[in-house]
């Protein structure tokens, strides 16, 4: 049975993309959103390291000043463009109150991004994560973040994920859509797995993209502060401050494992093959890239 306040409701559909009904209600304001030229957009499919990248960006914007980055929770420091729930400010309202230069978070597929981001030629950083880890992370996130419908069993959830019947639709369409746009626009396209492997190199890529230089000690502080261990215990980064009715950390922490798994053992999958065939086969560039043996 559906409940009030957006808790465990069925998803609606926004231009064919499954999405929370409360977000769809706020769509006219999102569509009309006026980006500013110095806005920086952080775009991801859910569970792909959005919060990690957001914390890195806030640290870069504050020259590695840890205290300044503890000023508020990450979801207030980097407002979530299309977010709208019945209580509290919407993402749009938050952004209106945020002084420039703003960091903006979105999970929208590229075709739904409000046009003003393109018109104002805003810088955009996209981060992709391999679908196996995204699926596992998304399953546990469905359990703890009650805005999502009940995920059902692990097997049921995986079926829905592979069919794109989850919030924000198909993972593959999302990463591919933004990848194609990257060929034409000012988009830095990063991979979660690269960030895990060599965060210093990835932070340098970001700095170059921003045209910014930081001293080595500052970069060091950014890397330390945004490590998994540090973020996991940082209430300004780990979503602990969210209302428990919205996120129940006793069911699963927000920062769960933060790993790169090659099999989805957590979803009961036994081998790479059994999961990779339906999600990615060998035609999807992510899998070819991450699993070169394909
Ligand atoms: P897991 O659920 O696999 O642990 P998002 O912010 O897009 O919702 O993504 C959340 C995922 O990013 C979670 O994955 C979380 O642990 C991971 N994550 C967050 N901060 C991280 C960090 N500093 N290092 C590695 N992974 C991180």
From TrEMBL:
It is found in: Cytoplasm. Residues 37-260 form the Sulfotransferase domain. It is an enzyme of class 2 (transferase). The keyword Cytoplasm applies. It comes from the Eukaryota. Belongs to the sulfotransferase 1 family. This is Sulfotransferase.
């Amino acid at each position: 049975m559906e409940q009030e306040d957006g808790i465990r409701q069925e998803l609606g559909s926004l231009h064919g993309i499954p999405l929370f009904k409360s977000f769809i209600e706020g769509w006219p304001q999102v569509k009309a959103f006026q980006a500013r030229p110095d806005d920086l957009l952080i775009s991801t499919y859910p569970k792909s390291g959005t919060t990690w990248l957001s914390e890195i960006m806030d640290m870069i914007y504050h020259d590695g000043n840890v205290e300044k980055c503890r000023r508020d929770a990450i979801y207030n420091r980097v407002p979530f463009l299309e977010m709208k729930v019945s209580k509290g400010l919407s993402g749009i309202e938050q952004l209106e109150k945020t002084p420039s230069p703003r960091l903006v978070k979105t999970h929208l597929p590229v075709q739904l991004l409000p046009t003003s981001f393109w018109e104002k030629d805003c810088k955009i950083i996209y981060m992709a994560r391999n679908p196996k880890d995204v699926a596992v992370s998304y399953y546990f996130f469905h359990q703890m973040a009650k805005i999502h419908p009940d995920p059902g069993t692990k097997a049921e959830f995986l079926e829905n994920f592979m069919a794109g019947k989850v919030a924000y639709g198909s993972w593959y369409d999302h990463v591919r859509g933004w990848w194609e746009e990257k060929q034409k626009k000012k988009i830095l396209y990063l991979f979660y797995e690269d960030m895990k492997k060599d965060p210093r190199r990835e932070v340098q890529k970001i700095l170059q993209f921003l045209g910014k230089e930081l001293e080595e000690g500052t970069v060091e502080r950014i890397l330390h502060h945004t490590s998994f261990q540090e973020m996991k215990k940082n209430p300004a980064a780990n979503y602990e401050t969210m209302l428990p009715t919205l996120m129940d950390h006793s069911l699963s922490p927000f920062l769960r494992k933060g790993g790169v798994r090659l099999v989805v053992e957590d979803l009961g999958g036994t081998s790479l093959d059994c999961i990779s065939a339906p999600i990615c086969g060998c035609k999807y560039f992510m899998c070819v890239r991450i699993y070169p043996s394909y």
